[in-house]
Structures are given as C-alpha cells and as structure tokens.
Amino acid sequence: MKIITLHKPVNISELYNHLQKRLNPIFQEQRQSNISFNIANTPTGIEISYPQLYEGVLFTITVQDDELWITRNEHYVDDVNSITVESILNSLFDDISNGQGTDLVQEG
Predict the structure, then answer these.
(1) Which of 66, 72, 71 lies closest to 93, judged by CA?
(2) What is the pLDDT of residue 77?
(3) Residue 61 pairs with which residues in a beta bridge?
(4) Predicted pLDDT at 50
(5) Of 19, 35, 18, which Cα lies nearest the Cα of 27?
(6) If phi over 0 gives left and psi between -120 and 50 gives alpha, with beta otherwise, what is residue 103?
(7) Mapped to the 3 state alphabet, what secondary structure does 25-67 carry?
(8) Are 83 and 25 in contact (CB under 8 A)?
(9) Taking Cα atoms as reference points, which of 88, 56, 65 lies closest to residue 6?
C-alpha cells in the first residue's frame, strides 16, 4: 500500500469526480489507446478497473482525512498500462491538493 498526503482534507466525491473526468482522456492520449477504465465510488473506496483485460481491481483509493491510501493489484505492478495509470493518478492527486503538493508518506 502507498500512502500519500495532500496537506488538506480530501472530499472523496470531489476526488472521484476529478478522476472520472480526467483519468481516461489523459490515459488515452498518453498511450494512444481506446482503453477506458471503470472508475467506481464504492464503500471500500474509489476502485479503478478494466475487466476486459485485468482480473480484479487495479487500484483502490481510500480517503483518510488528508491522506490517500492506495492499494495496487500486485499481479500487474510491471504492466505498462498500470504504471501509466499510477503516473496519471499522481498528477491528478497534485491537482486535488490545490497547489499544496503531495508527499509520499509510506510505500510498501
């Protein structure tokens, strides 16, 4: 799990809407692909998946006040699409911080 702090409380609905709006278009542009990930706001957190290609959820993002707890599917850590999504997520998290930046608290 990776923990990122945004230095301000995070509203899960705001984060979900931002990911819904921005993740797929950025991914499609960067990878020149028509893949559209499913982004769901579930009781366990925001889940990102693409069942046509990957078994299970690729990422689960849980909000804990000003921290994002990110769980990545261990079966796809070296997959280029998964790595691309993670890179885009990091950029989108920075957007949500309103210019305050993000810090990696824990990775493992």
Answers:
(1) 66
(2) 84
(3) 46, 70
(4) 96
(5) 35
(6) beta
(7) HHHHHHHCCCCCCEEEEECCEEEEECCCCCCCEEEEEEEECCE
(8) no
(9) 65
Paired tokens of 33 = 């692909």
**Between 106 and 7, residue with greater pLDDT:** 7
**Dihedrals φ, ψ of 64, to 5°?**
-125, 85
Give the residue-averaged pLDDT of 44-70. 94
- 3-class SS of residue 11: coil
**Residue among 76, 78, 59, 57 nearest 68 (CA):** 59
Q: Rounded to whole angstroms, how far apart are CA atoms 73 and 58?
A: 5
**Chain CA centroid to CA 29, Å:** 17
Q: Tell me: the pLDDT tens digits for 77-99? A: 889 999 999 999 988 998 887 76
